[in-house]
Automatic annotation (TrEMBL):
Its main location: secreted. This is Meteorin-like protein. InterPro entries: Meteorin-like (IPR051998), TIMP-like_OB-fold (IPR008993). Keywords: Disulfide bond, Hormone, Secreted, Signal. GO terms for molecular function: hormone activity. It comes from the Eukaryota. The keyword Signal applies. GO terms for biological process: energy homeostasis.
Amino acid sequence: MYPTGALIVNLRPNTSPASYKHLTVCIKPFKDSAGANIYLEKTGELKLLVRDGERSPSKVYCFGYDQGGLFVEATPQQDISRKITGFQYELMSRGIASDLHTVSAPCRPCSDTEVLLAVCTSDFVIRGSIQDVTNEAEEQESVIHVGINKLYRQKSKVFQLTGESGNWRGQIKTLLECGVRPGDGDFLFTGRMHFGEARLGCAPRFKDFQRMYKEAKDKGLNPCEIGPD
């Protein structure tokens, strides 16, 4: 609050130092963050990450853990109004980070192998249908409103029972460019939690998942057990 001077922020995960090189750091500034620039700093060299006054409420900035720490420097202010600089951060393995921030073909359908692995490793796995899609042009994202027929797994309680009907519902975010639209039929939705939001991973039609799962199980190749019904 009322930032002055500068701070160096070094994030230290509760893991072995040998694993640091495999980590990615992601930060997400608060939507009303103001009063300071945020840089990536290593051995005295600064690279601007977030400029004071930028207004991209959903933008996430990621970098390799070995690229440096954060240097938060207050900017000169012309008034005495309250300024608060703040951001969320996450540390994750580079494999997970690449899943969330795929540069090449982010909307590409998953292969059978990718779907079966996603079922085993995702933060959430649900069977459901697309009730509605809200496009957020400014944030370049789509919000998928999902009606859930079966909840296989969730790490955070983003999918909730609603009303007297006792139906599970929730929202999943994906890129606007993927062009998701409401439609008939059930899907198997998988994905990861990122800054408290469910992000879409693999999402085959449920009947296709049933086929993949049966074929892999018959060959003894399914990486984990899950009831496909």
